[in-house]
Amino acid sequence: MSPVLNSSAVYAKRRAAIGRALLKAGGGVALLPTAPELPRNRDSDFPYRHDSYFYYLTGFSEPGAWLAVEASGKTVKSTLFCRPKDLEREIWDGIRLGPDAAPGLLGLDAAFSLDSLDQKMPELLANQPAVWFPFATHKGLETQVDGWLNQVRARVRLGAECPQSQHDLCKLLDEMRLVKDAHEIAILRRAGAISAGAHVRAMQTSAAMLRRQAAGGLREYHLEAELLHEFRRHGAEFPAYTSIVAAGANACVLHYRAGNAELKPGQLCLIDAGCELEGYASDITRTFPADGKFTPAQRILYDIVQASQEAAIEATRPGNRFSDPHNAATRVLVEGMLDTGLLAKARHGSVDDVLESGAYRQFYMHRTGHWMGMDVHDCGDYTEPGSPLQPEKDALGQSVMRKPSRILKPGMVLTIEPGLYVRPAKGVPKKFWDIGIRIEDDALVTARGCELMTRGVPVKADEIEALMRT
Ligand code: GLY
Ligand code: MN
Ligand code: MN
Prior knowledge:
Number of helices: 14
Number of strands: 21
Bound molecules: glycine, manganese (II) ion
CATH architecture of the largest domain: Alpha-Beta Complex
Distance between the termini: 38 Å
CATH class of the largest domain: Alpha Beta
CATH topology of the largest domain: Creatine Amidinohydrolase
Oligomer: single chain
Radius of gyration: 25 Å
Helix content: 25-40%
Largest sheet: 6 strands, mixed
C-alpha cells in the first residue's frame, strides 16, 4: 500500500478517480449533496452526520453543502457549494469554512455560496451529455434536479443543450468505496483498536462489579456507559450504530439494544458495539460470562462459535468469494449442532443434509458478514460484476437466479460474525436454552489472507476468563 497522503490530496485523488470514471462513461456532471440536518424536537437537532459519499470525495463535514464534478473533454473540475460566512449564525452554531477559504483548504477548483445553488446548477448542467447523482438516497433530490434541467431546457432557444441522460452516481462510487485506500485503512485500524479497548473495559467492569456486588447491581446500561466512555475518550465521534448490550436470553434477540436488564452471575453478556472515528466504522461483538467464568454448557457452545469463526477467517483471502467465509462457518456450526444434540442426528441426518435442508437456521439465521467502511453495513455489490446469472439457493432455500458471489480482493473490508442463538424449544437440550453467542471481528483482505483489525480484545474463552480475572 502507498504511504498515507495528506488529507486534501486524498480527496483530490478520489475526485480525479471519479472524474476518470465519468469520462470513461461518456462524461457529464456529477452532483452530490451532503446529508441534511435533522430536527429532533423544537430547537434540538439529532447529532449531525455528513453523507458518506459526499465526505468520501471532499473530507468536508459541514451541513448545507454540495459537490459538482464536471468531466468533459479531458478535464475534470470540482466545485463546492457551501454555507456562506455569517457572523450572526456562526455565534450560535459555530464557524463556517465559507466559499472563499474552501478551494485552498479542500483542494477544489471553485466554491460558491449555497445561496447561488439554483442559479449555478443549470449553468453547470448546460451542454453536458449526462447528469449523475445518487438515486433514491436523498429525499427530493430527483425533483431538484428536474427543476434545474427544466431551467436548462428553457434556454434551448438560446443555444443551450440539455443533458440527455441521467445515471446513478452510487454505481461508480460504490465500486470505489469497496476497495479501501491507505488513508481509509489507517483510520479503520485506529477505529478497530479503540472499539477493542472499549470491549476490554466492559468485560473488566462486568467482572469487577459482580465481584464487588455479588448480590446484584450490574445492568446492561452500566456496560454501555463504559463503551461510550472509551469511544469518546479516544476521540471517536459516535457509536457507529446503536450498541447492543444483551444479558442472558436477550442475546437471542438479534437487534436488542442496551437496556436496563440486570446481569447476574452465571449469565452470558453479548456486546455488539463499535465506534465511528473520522467517518469510519468499526463493528465488534464479544460474548463473555458476566462474572468472568463460562459454565460448562456455555463453554461448549462458545467453543463451537469460535471454531466456526476461525474457519471463516481462514476462508477470507483474495481469490475466494464473499460467500466462502459464510459457508465455512456454517459447516462448523452445523457439525456442532449435531454433536451437541441441538439438532438430533436421527431426525436431521448428516452435516450435508442439514446444510441442504437449512434446519440450522433455527439456531443460526443471519449471514456471517457484510462489507464495512464509512457505513457499518458499507456499500458495494455482493455479487461479481459482469458475471452471468446462474441458479442458486437464497437465504430461505428458494431457487433464484443470481450472479456468483463477489471475489475478494486486497483492500476490501468485511466483518466475520458467526453466532448461535438457542431459544427454548421442544427437543432442544435444556442446558442450552437462552444462550446467545456471537463473535465478530473486522477483517481487511490482504495480499495473502486477511488482517483482523479488532483483535485488541481477546476472543478465546480462556483468554477472556484470564482478562476478566484482572
Ligand atoms: N452491528 C451490526 C452488525 O453486526 O451487523
Ligand atoms: Mn456486523
Ligand atoms: Mn456487529
